[in-house]
Amino acid sequence: MIRPALSGLVPYEPGKPVEEVQRELGLDRVVKLASNEGPYGPFPAAQEAITRATPELNRYPDGGAWRLRHALAERHGVGFENVTVCAGADAVIGFTCLATLDPGDEAITGWPSFPSYVLDPLKLGGVPVRVPLRDDRFDLEAILAAVTPRTKLVFIAAPNNPTGTTSTRTEFEAYFARVPAHVLTVVDQAYFEYVDELDYPDAIEEFLKAGHNVLVLRTFSKIFGLAGLRVGYGVGSEEVVTAIGKVRRAFDVGSAGQEAALASLGETDEIIRRREANRTAMVSLDHVLRDHGLNPVGPAVANFVFVRVGTALALNDALLGQGVVVRPMGPFGAADALRITAGAPDEIAFLKRALDAVSVLDTIAST
Ligand SMILES: Cc1ncc(COP(=O)(O)O)c(C=O)c1O
User: Fold this and answer.
1) pLDDT tens readout for residues 118-177
2) What Å distances lie between residue 273 and 218, 223, 270, 344, CA to CA?
3) Which helix or strand (DSSP H or E) is residue 216 part of?
């Protein structure tokens, strides 16, 4: 009954809800630093928009996300037909695979990276090709060397989840100068708004508008604080966006999500404030970890760090016992590492107290 392509896959195992962890372990407080969400809620204008949308939730949403698509097209200076809005950037990844991959077609990505780049091709009988990171960064030269006539997709996470590092403008330019035209490159900029490095490119402006075969991903899940509503989008050629439109579900994004995303687009000052708060949080997270003998990978330019700790599960469990939920990196292909999101200042202080309590080096040494 079940397709053979699924035989090697395991169902996604979500972490336990925070309330459940709290109850099971009898903890007063649990801090979740596991999923790279922003620590702050939706913008006030988005919260108002959600409230305004509530009385009409008996209606189906606008399946075409017409107003949001128009607003995004205007914001990025592209056509309406160049924007697809889906239930998170994750859904755009899935629909892109569905629109492009026949069994046996290859999709290349760096590794470790975002698991959907591997899982979504596998679901379709496609062949994921994992090119090891070099110095914890995407190795675009090695990715180019892995391209074959069967390569349909290349996924580049910039910044990369889980390492937090990014490819630079110069590296991208060298890549786009050589990548064959039959390859669609998906540049995933889920953390775009957090990054202010000068050599970090806006892939829509710099690569899509330059005519490269590229689909750029963005999301409202991170700095905009809307992860729970599931709104992300892709900006690409009309051909690719139209193909995604053929496979995407008719009502992929709910009305509250569409309204909240629209209302968030105007809040530029708040984005700047959150970006700065995140930068401060990243510095203090780095200090806290280093003070405990840990050495996070860098430069990490988004809102999380990746740190090798030996057998990650021991420290993970010890932190959990103190009420801090971080993410062990086994499913990302790095069983020796943890990923830790930069939370709000009081959450980082809580992490510091937890690390003090668990005696990091003893925990690692005992594994
Ligand atoms: C690199 C990357 N791409 C995509 C996503 C998915 O984002 P969304 O919540 O929009 O589905 C994430 C989420 O963690 C991510 O890290």
Assistant:
1) 999 999 999 999 999 999 999 999 999 999 999 999 999 999 999 999 999 999 999 999
2) 19, 10, 5, 13
3) strand 214-219
Q: Which atom of ligand 1 is nearest to the CA of 232?
A: 10
* Alpha carbon distances (Å) from 232 to 188, 206, 225: 11, 20, 12
* Terminal C-alpha separation, the chain: 42
CA of 364 to the centre of ligand 1 (A): 30
Q: Identify the helix (H) or strand (E) that includes residue 130.
A: strand 127-132
3-class DSSP state for residue 86?
strand
Pocket flag, ligand 1, residue 255 (CB < 6 Å): no
The closest of 355, 351, 340 to 162, measured between CA atoms, is 340
Task: Report whether CATH 3.50.50.60 matches the domain 44-264.
Answer: no
* 96-122: pLDDT as tens digits: 999 999 999 999 999 999 999 999 999
Q: Tell me the domain boundaries of the chain.
A: 13-42+268-365, 44-264
Q: Do domains 13-42+268-365 and 44-264 have the same CATH topology?
A: no
Which atom of ligand 1 sits closest to the CA of residue 92?
11
For residue 84, list its beta bridge partners: 234
Atom in ligand 1 nearest the alpha carbon of residue 159: 1
Q: Which amino acid is at 360?
A: V
Residue by residue, DSSP assigns 264-319 as: HTT-HHHHHHHHHHHHHHHHHHHHHHHHTT----S---SSEEEEE-SSHHHHHHHH
Cβ of 247: how many Cβ atoms within 10 Å?
13
CATH of domain 13-42+268-365: 3.90.1150.10
- The single-letter code of the amino acid at 22 is Q
State the distance from the centre of ligand 1 to the C-alpha of 367, rounded, in angstroms.
32
Q: Please, are residues 215 and 187 in contact by the beta-carbon 8 Å criterion?
A: yes
